[in-house]
Amino acid sequence: MHFLVVFRMVPDVVEELEVAPGGKSLETEYLRMIASESDDHALEEALLLKERHGGSVTVVAADAPELDDALFSALAKGADRVVKITGAEFGLSTSRMAGIVAATIRHTPGLLPADLILTGTQAIDDLDGLIAPLLGFHLGLPSLGIVTSVECQPACGAAVVTREFPDGVRGQFEIPLPAVLGVQAAEKPPRYVPVAKVRAAMKSGRIEEVPAPEPAVAPSLEIVRMSKPVPLSHAEMLEGDPEMAAAELCKMLAGRGLL
Questions:
Q1: I need a surface site. Which of 28, 49, 163, 218 has the fewest CB within 10 A?
Q2: pTM of the model
Q3: Residue 97: partners with Cβ closer than 8 Å, 6 or more residues away
């Protein structure tokens, strides 16, 4: 079986984030980027499926600061091939990035056919979890998100997938292969890889580079202005029953021009 993992690099929120002088993006000069946590779980799930069913794992990611380190780590963990998409504008929206990644998957030799395409359900710049359904849309494949376990049934051409719902509820779905899955958490924690093994992968492994195609969709969102949250000195508690509190809240919001 062939498992394809879509990786994304996101800002490390441990560091202080700063708005660029233009006010429309983050300051990138000192910005540290790391692999999205849920994408790391997607890679782990793909590696577990490879160990269970055989086959290969390919990781695809758009170029970003510190991406090479993440890709060599993927090789050290057990990925068979890593592909970097070059030339894409840094900081693209999820919809544009999904179009570029899907076009790359379609046109790069050896990436298709893939039995499963896995990516993280969310990222800190994609809290709505749109990347998996958008990839499924562009590739014409069924998709399912918030996945916590996958049981492939190659003989039946399907997979049984466990999906999380609110309040601890879980549901099982049978999805035909090939498909796109947004992984919330792998069945096991992402494996640790020693630095020495990553360095060995840097010497023996290779990152393939492919140019980014034209995005399949036009920009759907324009950022007018970004600003850091302004800390306040106090909180105001609303008294009374729910109706009175709601009326007072609406009055306050209207007074600030928010209603």
A1: 218
A2: 0.84
A3: 8, 62, 88, 131
Complete edge-to-edge strand list for the sheet that includes strand 207-211: 170-176, 158-164, 143-153, 179-183, 116-120, 2-7, 56-62, 81-86, 207-211
DSSP character for 166?
Answer: G
d(CA 208, CA 85): 9
Q: What is the largest CA-CA distance in the chain?
A: 68
pLDDT (tens digit, 9 = 90+) per residue, 108-158?
A: 999 999 999 999 998 888 888 899 999 999 999 999 999 999 999 988 899
Instruction: Give me the residue spans of the domains in the chain.
Output: 2-211
Model confidence at 216: pLDDT above 50: no
| Cα torsion 226, 227, 228, 232: sign | negative
Mean pLDDT rounded to a whole number for the chain: 90
Token pair for residue 210?
A: 């492919």
